[in-house]
């Protein structure tokens, strides 16, 4: 019994030390990220990000952004090739009244039938609600609840039409998934700066949850924010809470910046052999 009690005390003490270290690290990370934000949060870097597509295409930007976000998985060249085929056939506006699927418009796990039904669902949303933001608002004025109900709406659309798993892969279970692609889309729509569009006016950026990709997860794991690199809702909430401690009104401010550090500088967010070649090595909190 004594040993167990002692172990519990030691564990609590270790947790307190970890929390204090975590707070000190957050201060140094905040300074570093603000400096990096001024370097990377510029349009010249969007070619390495899925936001390149809605930034480049004309037409209904919300619609183009939604489709681009849904298919933002896999190799960049394959995504680009698919989106070109998609928008060439289905158009840059969700009101083209197409009635026939194209056998050449498919992507990885999504068949041409999945794509055709996806387009049909999107046009239905625009007909019923006027926009995707309108659909969200019809479900709830609280962003998380609106997102959950929107994804369930999409999943129900697929179930009613007996669609295959390729369609549902685009709409993961909102109760457990981090919903990375949806959260990326929401960042584009709700935040406003040189990168993000800020088209939606009825939701607040402070309520956004992190879209956790490989680089965000690595950052969080190496800095003790999460204990694994799983794209789960639990991890997304932990990461967002950390950044709310830095900027409570705009927790996703550094999302684009962190992913550029990973993609452009090959940053591992810890001391690594790449550090000596990095332009940010001076005063870097990770080295």
TrEMBL record:
Classification via NCBIfam families: TIGR02757 family protein (TIGR02757)
Species per Swiss-Prot/TrEMBL record: Calditerrivibrio nitroreducens (strain DSM 19672 / NBRC 101217 / Yu37-1)
One Pfam match: DUF2400
Protein name as catalogued: TIGR02757 family protein
Database matches in InterPro entries: CHP02757
Domain of life: Bacteria
Stretches the record annotates as Disordered: 1-21
């Amino acid at each position: 019994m004594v040993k167990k009690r002692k172990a519990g005390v030691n564990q609590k003490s270790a947790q307190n030390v970890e929390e204090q270290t975590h707070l000190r690290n957050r201060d140094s990370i905040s300074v570093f990220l603000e400096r990096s934000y001024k370097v990377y949060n510029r349009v010249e870097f969007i070619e390495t990000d899925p936001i390149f597509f809605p930034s480049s295409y004309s037409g209904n930007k919300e619609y183009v952004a939604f489709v681009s976000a849904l298919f933002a998985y896999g190799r960049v060249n394959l995504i680009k090739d698919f989106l070109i085929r998609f928008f060439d056939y289905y158009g840059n506006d969700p009101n083209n009244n197409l009635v026939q699927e194209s056998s050449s418009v498919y992507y990885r796990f999504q068949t041409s039938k999945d794509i055709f039904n996806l387009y049909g669902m999107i046009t239905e949303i625009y007909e019923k609600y006027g926009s995707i933001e309108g659909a969200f608002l019809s479900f709830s004025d609280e962003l998380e609840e609106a997102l959950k109900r929107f994804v369930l709406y999409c999943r129900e659309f697929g179930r009613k039409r007996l669609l295959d798993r390729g369609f549902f892969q685009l709409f993961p279970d909102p109760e457990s998934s981090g919903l990375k692609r949806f959260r990326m889309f929401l960042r584009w729509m709700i935040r406003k700066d040189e990168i993000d569009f800020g088209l939606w006016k009825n939701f607040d950026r402070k309520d956004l949850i992190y879209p956790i990709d490989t680089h965000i997860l690595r950052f969080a794991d190496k800095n003790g924010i999460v204990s694994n690199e799983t794209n789960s809702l639990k991890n997304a909430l932990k990461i967002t809470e950390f950044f709310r401690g830095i900027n409570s009104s705009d927790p996703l401010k550094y999302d684009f910046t962190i992913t550029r550090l990973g993609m452009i500088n090959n940053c591992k967010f810890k001391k690594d052999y790449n550090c000596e070649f990095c332009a940010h090595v001076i005063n870097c909190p990770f080295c």
